Amino acid sequence: MTTTNALGGTPVLTYFPAKYLGLGEILRLFFADAGIPHEEAPTNKDEWPALKKQLIESGANPIGTVPIVKIGDKVYHQTMPTVKYFSKKIQKYVPASIEDEYFLDQILDIISDWRSHARVLWGQDEAAKQTYKAETIPKFINAFDTFLGRHADGPFLLGKDIMYADFPLYQILADNGIRKGGELAGILGEHPRLKAFAEAVENRPPIKAHLAGRE
Ligand SMILES: N[C@@H](CCC(=O)N[C@@H](CS)C(=O)NCC(=O)O)C(=O)O
Description:
Largest sheet: 4 strands, mixed
Radius of gyration: 17 Å
Bound molecules: glutathione
Strand order of the largest sheet: 2-1-3-4
Number of domains: 2
Distance between the termini: 36 Å
CATH class of the largest domain: Mainly Alpha
Shape: globular
CATH topology of the largest domain: Glutathione S-transferase Yfyf (Class Pi), Chain A, domain 2
Helix content: 55-70%
């Protein structure tokens, strides 16, 4: 069975037109790495209220958010569980032990916490942005540096094999400009494990090809 068939058809991703950014990008990284062709059906500021209403009223996504992924008549929502579910469907990026799975799920939870703090970056509160950069980012960076240190051989969270939580981890770094060429790339110089992690993700051939249009 091909990986696309394992998902039951071609996935169609709906997200705001933010290529290389945000939660939608986590799914793009996953599809690219897994070799699963997907289609894009982006929404925009004008169309979004009607789509949100329809998602809520139809029950397809009662919380009314994107990204959503449609495969046939099924609608998948909530990015982290979706990446994990698709991983299990294609039998890739999933660890063998429940201890390792627990570790990866802890990581997903902490990434979600980080994402909720990062919202200040899109607001008007300059003081909150400064606090975010001075305190919040270092707190999360230090934690992930420690987590990556659990498998010192690296480069990924569980060692040499990339897992479902590695895609969201890479993307939260990218969304914060913590990658080569990013606004906060200097942080990587102070955290070699994080640097090796980001480079290992970016150097995977399908991801490299996907990211080629970013700069
Ligand atoms: N837990 C959700 C969060 C989704 C979310 O907050 N999406 C934002 C865009 S990144 C959104 O839909 N915002 C528009 C809205 O809530 O109306 C997930 O992981 O997919």
